Amino acid sequence: MIPAPYLLYLGHSTDFAGIKTSRGLAAFRPDDCVGEFRHDDCPLTLGLPRLTIAEGAARGARTLVLGIANSGGTLGSDLVEDAAAALEAGMNVAAGLHQRLRDVPRLAELAKAKGLQLFDVRDAPANMVVGNGNPRAGHRLLTVGTDCSVGKMYTTLALTEGLRARGIVADFRATGQTGILIAGSGVPIDAVVADFISGGIEMITPARSDDGWDLIEGQGSLFHPSFAGVSTGLLHGAQPEAIVMCHDPLREHMRGIPGRKLPGLKECLDANLQVARLTSPNVRAVGICLNTSQMDPAEARDLCARTADELGLPTTDPIAFGTDAILDELLCTAPSARSTTASR
Question: Which interval of the chain is the signal sequence (predicted)?
């Protein structure tokens, strides 16, 4: 386990989506976060106290979490400098980037000299297996998306909490660095060798007979040229009984690919169901989740209602409006209802 409490790193970030790991920890593990560290040119905030490295250490932070994502997942010189400062101040350092902290000689040597630890969250387990697609017992839901960073993790966590509130056993299964930091376990599926992606998901969602649910955090999108392979492996390994589609209605183009439009919701939903049927022939869609965090609440409610009418599926922003309508559909407590949480 990565020692808490944490000082959350924003650095020089200017992209709101790029600080999703720090945002996720601030939202779902607030009691473990003492503050945020950002440079003067960073206009973003998590609403936490802004602290220097030294102030963070003085307030008891045990780990600096480099909770940002950049293209290629690299450790630039600024990140290395700030990580080194944290080690000098007596903090461990954690990161979910593709480039490993331990592979930077300066950081590895400094951590050893100080008796501190470097946590590379994107390390895949050593005992990975190839998926087989054989039917297995249990209830599983997978979140999918029209693009990267559209709210799949937030939706999965919200659905997990919603099921638990109804007295139903439910487990969040993390597949990305942010989710793993929140949950304390999981498989960083985009760092897994391609042959083992579906097997990695089978491994963290084994057969279960307690009538509980595994809620699996989705990654990427079938329509994103860079990451569709990961999304496909997730669909096959999850063998989901149900899927929930996530979408950012204000997204102008695929993340990182200006000029490439996002797919339509129905087009994306149909494609995900088709791919999922390879290992889960009876999979069904149970809802749409929209990330309306940057929208006027009234406009967001109206969009949820219109989307529900167009697609015949419960539609909500899981953070702003809750997940009850989708959970009703999932559990078939109101099978004939095609309502939207936002319209209630």
Answer: none
* Domain 139-343: CATH class, spelled out: alpha beta
Architecture of domain 6-120: 3-Layer(aba) Sandwich (3.40)
Estimate the share of the chain in helix, then strand, then coil, as percent rounded to the nearest 5. 40, 15, 45
- Domain ranges within the chain, ordered by starting residue: 6-120, 139-343
Structure tokens at 93: 């350092």
Go through 285-316 and write b for each residue having 16 or more CB atoms within 10 A of its CB, e for each that does not.
Answer: bbbbbbbbeebeeeebbebbbebbeebebbbb
The one-letter code for the residue type at 115 is G
Dihedral angle over CA of 79, 154, 240, 183, nearest 10: 60
Residue 344, pLDDT score:
38
Residue 27 makes CB contacts below 8 A (sequence gap 6+) with 154
Closest CA to 124 of 149, 104, 96: 96
Residue 71 — very low, low, confident or very high, per pLDDT cuts 50/70/90? low
Is residue 132 pLDDT above 80, yes or no? Answer: yes
Please write down the HEC assignment for all residues of 208-226: CCCCCEEEECCCCCCCCCC
Phi-psi region of 164 (alpha: psi -120 to 50; beta: other; left: phi over 0): alpha
| Closest CA relative to residue 181, chosen from 83, 66, 56 | 66
Q: How many CB atoms lie within 10 A of CB 336?
A: 5
The reply to whether 139-343 shares the fold of 6-120 is yes
Written as six digits, the tokens of 97 are 């980037």
221: Cβ contacts below 8 Å, ≥ 6 apart: 144, 145, 146, 147, 148, 227, 228, 231, 254, 263, 268
The pTM for the full model equals 0.86
Residue 333 predicted with pLDDT over 60: no
